[in-house]
Amino acid sequence: MEFGLYLYLVLSFSAALELTLIPYLVTSLSWRFKTKFVILWFGKEIDTKSFPLLLKSDKLKLLCWYYITAILNTTLYIVFCFLIPIGYQEFWIYILLITIIYLLSVLSIVYLQCKFKNKIKHKTFFSKKEAVKYYVMMLNDYENINFYDNFVLYENKKVSVHNGPIQFNQKRFQKKLQKNVNNKNALDKEFKIFLNYLRIYGAIINRIDYYQNLDILHNNKKDSIEVLPSILINNFVYMRKIFYNDNKLI
């Protein structure tokens, strides 16, 4: 009976192998959120090849998942090694099994981390200074934006269910910009707000079925859903101009 209990613990520890998949899944989903959706839906509005989509801090955040998982697996291994005192013979069988499982999990983490590193090795990660410099140049290209474009999404002549999340985030980012006005590193923080703005709206737009009968009513005219990315960027630029007194930070 005792050995059955120990075997059960070994099998339970084998579940730690599943932990090795967590960082890869998280980083893959995060990668899509940080880059793919922005390129897919805002690629016509900004030059995504030169735009600082990724910061150096993003790289650290993405890779830290693998280190965290390795630490958790190691901690779990140590706990299982000293969890229950057993007889000499069974003890070494127990230790051997969980050691094999532990080594397999570590090798899996290393393999998946290397695979992810190869995926991102040709990508450029920008410093804060580089990102802000590009952001200022981009704002200069939008200096003629002088109004906020109120819009509503309609589906089959009714307000679309997608309109709510989009309008909610418009108000949310207005508050973020307003709160950032007195920040010492306002322009640096503002760029991060803009980057997050693109990422969140990229993910929201990606959930919209473009084959649905969706229209946008804006500026007293009806348009197709394809103009939404342009409206969103223009609105952000106008909001920041209002809060920062027409580009006084530039």
What does this molecule look like?
The protein is α+β, with helices and mostly antiparallel strands and 250 residues long. It folds into 2 domains: 2-120; 128-243, no CATH class. It has 9 helices and 4 strands. Strands 2-1-3-4 form a 4-stranded antiparallel β-sheet, with no helix packed on it. A hairpin with a 2-residue loop joins β3 (214-218) and β4. α3 (21-42) runs antiparallel to α4 (56-81) and α7 packs antiparallel against α8. The longest helix has 33 residues, at 88-120. It is elongated. The model is unreliable at 246-250 (pLDDT under 50). Keywords: Membrane, Transmembrane, Transmembrane helix. The chain crosses the membrane at residues 6-26, 64-85, 91-112.
Can you give keywords for this protein?
250 residues; alpha+beta; 2 domains; 9 helices; 4 strands
Our count of helices gives 9
The proportion of residues in beta strands is: 5-15%
**Count of domain modules:** 2
Strands of the largest sheet, in order across it?
2-1-3-4
Query: How many strands, which pairing sense, and closed or not: the largest β-sheet?
Result: 4 strands, antiparallel
In N-to-C order, the SSE pattern is HHHHHHEEHHEEH
Helicity range: 55-70%
Class from helix and strand fractions = alpha+beta
Number of strands: 4
Radius of gyration: 25 Å
Q: Overall pLDDT, averaged?
A: 84
State the low-pLDDT regions, or none. Answer: 246-250
Keywords: Membrane, Transmembrane, Transmembrane helix
Transmembrane segments: 6-26, 64-85, 91-112
